[in-house]
Amino acid sequence: MSLIKEAPATAEPALSEIAVSVRNISKNYGAVEALKDLTLEFPRGQLTSLLGPSGCGKTTLLKIIAGLLEPTSGEVEVNGKPVTGPGPNRAFVFQDFALLPWATVMRNVAFGLELRSINKSKREDIAAKYIKEVGLGGFENSYPHELSGGMRQRVGLARALSVDAKVLLMDEPFSAVDEQTRRKFQEDLLGLVQNENKTFIFVTHSIEEAVYVSDQIAILLPRPSRVSEIIRPSGFRHKDHDQIRRDPEYLDIVDDIWASLRSYVE
């Protein structure tokens, strides 16, 4: 199907370097096939974007990996262990922030640790570290209604980081913010991928965003969803933020993906 050209790529990751493995996953909603025999691997310590037209099953797949949805058939493994439900090795960053409106930034970020019965002093130390890391130092005692949309999303990201899950699942986390904030988030995300040694699985509708932030891009086709193409951009990953957006390889991959997906956009 695809007109997409493989970008200059690193070698296929070895099995020992795979953090999440999805094998022959199908998901039916009554007579509707959302996913069919979908197989995909997510390299450890890298960011993989799930990209495709609306309704192609990106969020469904993400929720199956999270253990929030049960597949009709197939299996998911995280670090070699089968997924049978939610677990501490995965954390979810929601599109709509999903914050506790009555709790401060500190309480929201520390909430996952509180559920794990971490004592208050330790969990607040951990939360403070990630509040600072996402650029919210000084807002520890603020409430969600006092924050902008971008700041609330940073709280959600800090909460996911604080529980030290090895896999972060991000469902269009930047879609509700303005373009300037979104670009800053994208730059910050590249730093987190580099520094946190975690595996990121990132759902987006934006071709430009996927190419900008990803080590690997999985192109999904409409229902029943399956993987059309795997792209591993590599030539511009070492460049600074502004150079990436002007790099010819970056621009070519964006154009090739759009040419491939154009016919699926209604």
Structural account:
With 266 residues, the chain is an alpha/beta fold. It folds into 2 domains: 42-89 and 169-178 and 189-266, Rossmann fold, CATH 3.40.50; 93-164, no CATH class. The protein contains 8 helices and 10 strands. It has helices at residues 58-66, 105-115, 120-133, 149-162, 179-196, 207-213, 241-246, 248-261; strands at 18-29, 32-43, 47-51, 73-78, 81-82, 90-93, 167-171, 199-204, 216-220, 227-231. The strands form 2 sheets. Strands 6-7-8-3-9-10 form a 6-stranded mixed beta sheet, with helices on both faces. A hairpin with a 2-residue loop joins β4 (73-78) and β5.
Low-confidence stretches: 1-10
Alpha-beta content class: alpha/beta
- The span between the termini is 18 Å
* Number of DSSP E strands: 10
**Overall mean confidence score, pLDDT:** 87
Write the layout of secondary structure elements.
Layout: E1 18-29, E2 32-43, E3 47-51, H1 58-66, E4 73-78, E5 81-82, E6 90-93, H2 105-115, H3 120-133, H4 149-162, E7 167-171, H5 179-196, E8 199-204, H6 207-213, E9 216-220, E10 227-231, H7 241-246, H8 248-261
Parallel strand pairs: 3-8, 3-9, 6-7, 7-8
Antiparallel strand pairs: 1-2, 1-4, 4-5, 9-10
Helix pairs in contact: 2-3, 2-4, 3-4, 6-8
